[in-house]
Amino acid sequence: MNTRTLIHVIESMPTSDGAGVKLRRSLGSQRGLHVDPFLMLDEFYSDNPDDYMAGFPAHPHRGFETVTYMLDGHMRHEDHLGNRGDLGPGDVQWMTAARGIIHSEMPQQSEGRMRGFQLWLNHRPQPKVYASCCWQRSRCGSRWYSTARS
Questions:
Q1: How far apart are the first and last CA of the chain?
Q2: CA proximity to 128, closest of 100, 95, 103
Q3: Quick check: 22 and 51 in contact, CB under 8 A?
Q4: Mean pLDDT across the stretch 65-80?
Q5: CATH number of 25-137: 2.80.10.50, 2.60.120.10, 2.160.10.10, 3.30.479.30?
């Protein structure tokens, strides 16, 4: 067995995003720390609805991927292409923003714990011109599906 030595710990920092959702950001929070292709890593975690109820209203993305993993709670994803997905405990969503997408992620609960992670991955220049799409893996074990539209 090979032993690896930890060479750097990236501390997360408290911040807010969207319409005021409280979260902790590790990647993407420190100037000068670039770990391409990883752009950002957020953890959202609270039992207090005031920390998450405002959600992430419609906003644009372009040129990167987002991977969202829900541990607790219920979040709805919608985009300008008419795609819609519900994320609950154990669900994963992969969104390709590519040449551009406008989407929202809004809580679908009024109480209880909301917890999950979101990772942003940079695209090489070429894929930034491709069509945007979403993939979601449901907690019910259903298949991956694409909601790509031109």
A1: 48
A2: 100
A3: yes
A4: 92
A5: 2.60.120.10
Show the CA angle centred on residue 54, arms to residues 122 and 10, nearest 5°.
40
Could you count the other beta carbons within 10 Å of the beta carbon of residue 44? 27
Task: Give tens-digit pLDDT for 88-131.
Answer: 999 998 888 878 889 999 999 999 999 999 999 987 766 555 66
Amino acid at 12: S
**131-143 confidence digits (pLDDT tens):** 666 665 655 554 3
How far CA 129 is from CA of 47, 56, 97, 110, in Å, comes to 40, 25, 10, 38
Please, where are the H alpha helices in the chain? none
% the chain with pLDDT above 70:
82
Q: Give the dihedral sign, CA 86/69/12/120.
A: negative
* Nearest-angstrom CA–CA distance, 9 and 84: 36
- Give the whole-angstrom CA distance, residue 16 versus residue 140: 31
**Which amino acid belongs to residue 44?**
F
**What are 10's two structure tokens?**
């990236």
Strands 92-96 and 133-137 come out as: antiparallel
